[in-house]
Every structure is written in structure tokens, then in C-alpha cells.
Amino acid sequence: MSDSQQPGSSVPAGNKPDTGFVPGDDTFTQWRNVFSILMGKMTDEGMEQFRVARDLRNESADCKRCEEQRDYLLQFSPVVRYLSDNIRQLGGDLSSHNIYCRRCTNRKAGGFDPEYGILLCANEMKDQGHLEDTMAHEMVHAYDHLRFKVDWMNNLRHAACTEIRASSLSGECRWAREFFRRGQWKLTQQHQECVRRRAILSVSARPGCKDKEHAEKVVNEVWDSCFRDTRPFDEIYR
């Protein structure tokens, strides 16, 4: 073993393993990386490096597009306008001044914070429909925070309930999106299974949750009452 090699490793010390990703913003390098992905020659780490580089390169354009679509939806989307009106009736205010479009480093579509408003991850938005679903999802959280006084930090049952309602009412679990975007091809109970799956994932990521089994238990405990609760809507429209 050479002096530059660490014990138990075939990679020389100080050298990182080849991920298949080649840094560079020129067209040739970008296509080289794309073909490397298509040929299965890029590792998961390399693909993440590729995505980060792409997000950095497109940050300004992504945020500008997100802001334009956000403003359009605030004015013309029936579900966004309806939720915004109901939030206003509860004393809240969500509009362009506290719905932010930003580049996110973790792979999520958005988030809600009671103190700051809504974050939309511009680099994760696939199209305007995806943005509309994300805005509606986070606005349901805002409504629940004002209407039901959600304890975000300490009560997993509260978190599970609002996640169930947000996934069910936002439209992100409607049949077409599940079928064409996520490859969920069941014809029955698809909406319920999508809502349950997404709620469990969200609860699993919270600090007070031990593991996926714990998240499933909490979601099951509140499922019946929270899935049936469609406020402020009369029923599930999307």
C-alpha cells in the first residue's frame, strides 16, 4: 500500500471517488453530464451535484418564473383565491409580500412558517399546476394554524391532521397527478392512499417522530376525523 493511500480504501488519500459528474456551465459539459446519467454512469451523488449546479445556474430565471406564476394564481386561481379569502376572514394575510419564491437546497416543494409565511421552492416547480397545488397545500396549513391553533412543535397528532387535510384538499393527490406524474396506477382508493402516504412521510420528518412506524400510528389515530374534515370547503373539489 502506498503512503498516499488510506487503509481499507482503494481511493488515494485526498482524492474523491469519481461520481461521473463533470463541473462546467458550457453546453458541451451539460450534455456530457446528461448522457452520463442516461447511460447509468453517474452515481446518486453525481446526480445530486448535477441538480445543484443546474439549480444555481437557473436560480434567477426559476425565481422570476415562480413569482410571475404566484402572482397570476393569487389573482385568478379559484382554489388559491378561496383559501386566501378564508385566511383573511380569520385575521391572516397571505399575498405576494409573504409568499416567497426561493431556491431550496433540500428536495421539497414548499413550506409554511407561522411567523414568516409560505416558501415556494422555485427550483422544484415543474409547472404552474404544480405551483398551484403547492400554494394550496401550504395555505391549508395557514388556515389550520389560524382556525385550530396547531401546535407545530410538540403535537404530532396536530401535524398529522393538517398534513392529511393539506394533501387531500390541495389537489396534489387527485387521480391524474398520481397516475401520470407518480406512476400510481390504481383505479380505486388512490386519493386516500396518496394522502396517507404523503402524511406519513411528512410526519416522519418531524423531530418528535421516532420512525416510520411511529408516523403511521399517529396518522392512523387521526385519520377518520381529519380526512372527513374538508373545511373551509364543502367537499373535496380537486
UniProtKB/TrEMBL annotation:
Source species, domain of life: Eukaryota
Q: Which GO terms describe its biological process?
A: mitochondrial protein processing; mitochondrial proton-transporting ATP synthase complex assembly
User: Which InterPro entries does the UniProt record give?
Assistant: Peptidase_M76_ATP23 (IPR019165)
- Tell me, in one coarse class, where this protein mainly resides: mitochondrion
Q: Which UniProt keywords are listed?
A: Hydrolase, Membrane, Metal-binding, Metalloprotease, Mitochondrion, Mitochondrion inner membrane, Protease
Q: Which GO terms describe its molecular function?
A: metal ion binding; metalloendopeptidase activity
Where is the region Disordered?
1-25
A Pfam family hit: Peptidase_M76
Kindly indicate whether the keyword Ribosomal protein belongs to this entry.
no
Q: Can you say where in the cell this protein is located?
A: Mitochondrion inner membrane
Q: Name one GO cellular component term.
A: mitochondrial inner membrane
Q: What is its EC number?
A: 3.4.24.-
- Membrane topology, record value: Peripheral membrane protein
Q: What does this protein do?
A: Has a dual role in the assembly of mitochondrial ATPase. Acts as a protease that removes N-terminal residues of mitochondrial ATPase CF(0) subunit 6 at the intermembrane space side. Also involved in the correct assembly of the membrane-embedded ATPase CF(0) particle, probably mediating association of subunit 6 with the subunit 9 ring.
Q: Which family is annotated? A: Belongs to the peptidase M76 family.
Q: What is this protein called?
A: Mitochondrial inner membrane protease ATP23
Per the UniProt record, the source organism is Aspergillus rambellii
Lineage, please?
Answer: Eukaryota, Fungi, Dikarya, Ascomycota, Pezizomycotina
